[in-house]
Amino acid sequence: MIKFDIITIFPEIFKGFVSESLLAWARKKKIIKINLHNLRKWTTDKHKTVDDKPYGGGPGMVLKIGPLYRAVQSLSSKFQVKSLKLRRRVILFSPRGKKLTQAMAKKWAKYDQLILICGRYEGVDVGVADHIADEIISIGDYVLNGGEVAAMAVIESVSRMVPGFIAKKESAQKFDHPQYTRPEIFTLGKKNLKVPKILLSGNHKKIKEWRSKLTKSTDL
Ligand code: ADE
User: Candidates 135, 139, 142, 155: which one to mutate for ligand 1, based on the most atoms within 8 Å of Cβ?
Assistant: First the structure.
């Protein structure tokens, strides 16, 4: 079972996400485990301070290294006791990171623990990227408010690759050919949208060929 440990200052963002549909099912079946951690738990002052003004000045606040370091330490060591040979990745989200790919999702699905650090858009002390994280990951060339949405993308794409998550191996892979549903003809204004004859033929071999021709080749 793969365990996701999410470090965030907004754990509430994930509550609905992990409690619906396939992720909820996979958690119940113990295919995946998702733990939410509020970074404030690892602060040491009475105000539970997680961010600070950067040295050298500038607008905005930056996440401090201390609480993040203690969070990763504590989540790593707790798990170490149970399994010495465990495979773990500490992932920091940042728009400056490497682009998330299906190949990464496939690789990480074989790990025991992914610790996901959600930064905020103003930034994170560079020590976290340089000395604490194993990977710095972006989900695209755009700036989000923080790493939470990126962490969700990793959780979903990795979970889908964990054995048992998707019953039929095929459906985890080839889903990108055109799909049609009833009725056979749908009238859209002046247009009649028709289901291709081949899909009504019952000839499974021909249908398979037709679909594979139209399946975009990706690294799935
Ligand atoms: N944090 C802010 N923008 C991000 C992005 N595009 N990918 C990952 N983390 C981010």
Answer: 139
